[in-house]
């Protein structure tokens, strides 16, 4: 057998051996071992290339062509095998980390409305059924609107009841109540009849205790028109109390004093804890005070643009925090703004 024929026989043998070795390969590492064994610097194909020096000059081109074809075939087999193994590896990972997309997802944890927001929305709903609409007014007010136009002259002693946050600009303050909205609403809607509630935050420079905060919500109510009487006020407040606290709730009006109403009253409801029998919460009286109210003072009507000889009206103001404290038996007002989830999650 000629040396060229012997080289060609060895070529076919290596091609078969490499194919068999690759078929047995189970990983990319095994493929690398086959590559080194056949195509590496000391591999079997490289060894055959070295035998070409023993061939006659006329046989070397043909031998070179045969060995290059061998090298290319083994490289092609390697690429096919590597591709197969890579696909198998990816498939294996997919199966191992399989996610069943038909399973229901984990439910997202939803937030909750603060109990004050819930109470405000309930107040809006109740008065909305009675024809009142919500009207927003500024939290930063002038001394004129917050006091003077509401019948609080600069030297009026009632100002001492409302510790005021002043600003660096003279005459500009944080409102101490929502009552300035009465003047703004009347001046905006004169001479039309009015029926609005004015919710918003108020600020007073007070000590923070279980019963008081420096920032609190308030809801003001105002109705202005012809022939409005105290009977209308009582009817509206009675309906509100029974909608908020239950149909069996009893109400009473007690005389009081506010500079911007005349006459002025406070509304009491029968204690929702003891049913009027007397307990620690109502201090044995059987009654709980929930808001202040009265007929709009003629001076305030005139400052709003309405002639008190022709028009009359009533106003009331309540604290949603106090309403919520009574309704849900909460004893510390600081819990509302404390961000304690143990408290907040009770009101889902």
TrEMBL record:
<dbReference type="GO" id="GO:0004826">
    <property type="term" value="F:phenylalanine-tRNA ligase activity"/>
</dbReference>
<keyword id="KW-0030">Aminoacyl-tRNA synthetase</keyword>
<feature type="binding site">
    <location>
        <position position="262"/>
    </location>
    <ligand>
        <name>Mg(2+)</name>
    </ligand>
</feature>
<dbReference type="Pfam" id="PF01409">
    <property type="entry name" value="tRNA-synt_2d"/>
</dbReference>
<comment type="subunit">
    <text>Tetramer of two alpha and two beta subunits.</text>
</comment>
<keyword id="KW-0067">ATP-binding</keyword>
<keyword id="KW-0436">Ligase</keyword>
<dbReference type="InterPro" id="IPR006195">
    <property type="entry name" value="aa-tRNA-synth_II"/>
</dbReference>
<dbReference type="GO" id="GO:0000049">
    <property type="term" value="F:tRNA binding"/>
</dbReference>
<feature type="domain" description="Aminoacyl-transfer RNA synthetases class-II family profile">
    <location>
        <begin position="116"/>
        <end position="326"/>
    </location>
</feature>
<protein>
    <recommendedName>
        <fullName>Phenylalanine--tRNA ligase alpha subunit</fullName>
        <ecNumber>6.1.1.20</ecNumber>
    </recommendedName>
</protein>
<keyword id="KW-0479">Metal-binding</keyword>
<dbReference type="GO" id="GO:0006432">
    <property type="term" value="P:phenylalanyl-tRNA aminoacylation"/>
</dbReference>
<dbReference type="InterPro" id="IPR002319">
    <property type="entry name" value="Phenylalanyl-tRNA_Synthase"/>
</dbReference>
<dbReference type="InterPro" id="IPR045864">
    <property type="entry name" value="aa-tRNA-synth_II/BPL/LPL"/>
</dbReference>
<dbReference type="GO" id="GO:0005524">
    <property type="term" value="F:ATP binding"/>
</dbReference>
<keyword id="KW-0648">Protein biosynthesis</keyword>
<dbReference type="InterPro" id="IPR022911">
    <property type="entry name" value="Phe_tRNA_ligase_alpha1_bac"/>
</dbReference>
<keyword id="KW-0460">Magnesium</keyword>
<dbReference type="InterPro" id="IPR010978">
    <property type="entry name" value="tRNA-bd_arm"/>
</dbReference>
<comment type="similarity">
    <text>Belongs to the class-II aminoacyl-tRNA synthetase family. Phe-tRNA synthetase alpha subunit type 1 subfamily.</text>
</comment>
<dbReference type="GO" id="GO:0000287">
    <property type="term" value="F:magnesium ion binding"/>
</dbReference>
<dbReference type="InterPro" id="IPR004188">
    <property type="entry name" value="Phe-tRNA_ligase_II_N"/>
</dbReference>
<keyword id="KW-0547">Nucleotide-binding</keyword>
<dbReference type="Pfam" id="PF02912">
    <property type="entry name" value="Phe_tRNA-synt_N"/>
</dbReference>
<keyword id="KW-0963">Cytoplasm</keyword>
<dbReference type="GO" id="GO:0005737">
    <property type="term" value="C:cytoplasm"/>
</dbReference>
């Amino acid at each position: 057998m000629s040396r060229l024929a012997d080289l060609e026989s060895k070529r076919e043998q290596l091609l078969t051996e490499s194919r068999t070795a690759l078929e047995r390969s189970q990983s990319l590492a095994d493929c690398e071992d086959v590559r080194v064994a056949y195509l590496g610097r000391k591999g079997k194909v490289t060894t055959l290339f070295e035998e070409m020096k023993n061939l006659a000059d006329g046989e070397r081109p043909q031998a070179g062509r045969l060995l290059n074809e061998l090298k290319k075939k083994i490289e092609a087999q390697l690429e096919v095998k590597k591709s197969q193994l890579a696909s198998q590896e990816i498939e294996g990972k997919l199966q191992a980390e399989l996610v069943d997309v038909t399973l229901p997802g984990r439910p997202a944890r939803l937030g909750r409305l603060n109990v004050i927001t819930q109470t405000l929305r309930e107040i809006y709903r109740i008065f909305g059924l009675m024809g009142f609409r919500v009207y927003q007014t500024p939290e930063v007010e002038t001394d004129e609107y917050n006091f003077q136009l509401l019948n609080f002259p600069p030297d009026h002693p009632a100002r001492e009841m409302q510790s005021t946050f002043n600003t660096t600009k003279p005459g500009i303050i944080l409102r101490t109540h929502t009552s300035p909205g009465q003047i703004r609403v009347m001046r905006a809607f004169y001479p039309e009849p009015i029926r609005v509630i004015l919710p918003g935050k108020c600020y007073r420079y007070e000590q923070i205790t279980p019963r008081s905060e420096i920032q609190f919500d308030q809801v003001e109510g105002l109705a202005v028109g012809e022939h409005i009487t105290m009977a209308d006020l009582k009817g509206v407040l009675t309906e509100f109390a029974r909608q908020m606290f239950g149909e069996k709730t009893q109400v009473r009006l007690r005389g009081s004093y506010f500079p911007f109403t005349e006459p002025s009253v406070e509304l009491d409801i029968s204690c929702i804890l003891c049913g009027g029998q007397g307990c620690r919460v109502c201090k044995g009286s059987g009654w709980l005070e929930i808001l202040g109210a009265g007929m709009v003072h003629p001076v305030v009507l005139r400052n709003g643009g309405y002639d008190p000889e022709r028009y009359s009206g009533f106003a009331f103001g309540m604290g949603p925090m106090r309403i919520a404290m009574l309704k849900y038996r909460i004893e510390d007002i600081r819990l509302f703004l404390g961000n304690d989830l143990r408290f907040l999650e009770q009101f889902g």
